[in-house]
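Onboarding guide, step 5: your first structure request.
Type a short instruction followed by the sequence, for example:

Predict the 3D structure of this protein.
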Amino acid sequence: MSERRSLLFIFAHPDDESFSVAGSACRYAEEGVQLTLVTATRGGKGKCGNPPSCTAEELPRVREAELRAAAEIIGIKDVRVLDYKDRELASAPVEEMRSQLVRVLREARPQVVVTFDPHGANLHPDHVAISRFATDAISAAADPRWYREAGEAHSVSRLLWTTPRRFYELARMDNPGSEPGVDFLLDNRRWWKKKAEALRAHRSQNIQIDELFFNVADTERVLSIEAFRDAWQTAPKESPRMDLFEGL
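The system replies with structure tokens like these:
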């Protein structure tokens, strides 16, 4: 690949990036890959932490600040926060969302895009919605007839979904690569402490984060593996790839 490698993450809420891709993003930031993160909401319907770190009214501002702190830890320099309301993403105007994401795609020009699968990983309506919006925008960004003012058309080479299996289930398996839907399996042990630091940056969400990642006996193992499904796979792979850019 002669052009600079570029990777775009499209998620719904602050902390989605730290849950799903922080280890892999740390790896690619270290390798000099251009990283861009789109977060569609400020997560205003989330928790305020225990003990509370803010009021409910302050939460959107606090969570955006937490997101930017986590992104800095990870090494994501290009962070774009859209102005949609938490738990209302499914009702966002389609044309408006499409045009915003097309502009990002044409500016960042990623070879690889990562988002949630069509079921939102855990059926969260905002996760389902952002998956749909991302897929729609990828198609439109490749067609020069859409939004000519948004820049030169760009075709994404690979669309990846975060794994439908819960990350902590995969991490505890002897052979997670044998699971259906695990088309890319990244061993991020070198960066597990960075992922932990990024998760800790989301202080307002410490109840869930502690429960899933830190109040367990195998924190390092759970934070060391990230898996992805190839949304456009046309033939099954015998074993998962270890690099999101492999084969491009």
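Each response can be followed by summary notes, for example: The radius of gyration is 17 Å.
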